Amino acid sequence: AAVAADSLPQQVSTGRSALLSNTSHNDNSNSRTTLDLTNNNKNKKVFFHYFYMGEDNKVQIQLEIRKDRRCPLCYFNAISDRGLLIHCQTTHSNELSFEGGKDEHGNLH
Description:
Radius of gyration: 14 Å
Oligomer: single chain
Number of helices: 1
Pfam families: Zn_SUZ12
Protein name: Polycomb protein SUZ12-like zinc finger domain-containing protein
Strand content: 15-25%
Region (Disordered): 1-37
Helix content: 10-25%
Organism: Eucampia antarctica
Number of domains: 1
InterPro entries: Znf_SUZ12
């Protein structure tokens, strides 16, 4: 299965927000990029980019790097990149926003 790669959202809402940001690049700007999230995860990392409002309404960014495919919020073992992204989008999307993409090394962001 493939997920279309979209650019990062321009709006940062107040409160807690989590984002798996897309850092892949597209060599052909006229074609739509798709990302295969079913590849082998061995030795690949997952980067969670957390964007939230801090003191004085300034945007704060935190980075968490994991080697497993466990949800950082509830520790559900999703096993695959696709499973982790689907879990986060369906289980935690009431208060948080999630997007995903792979970098040139196959790591999920």
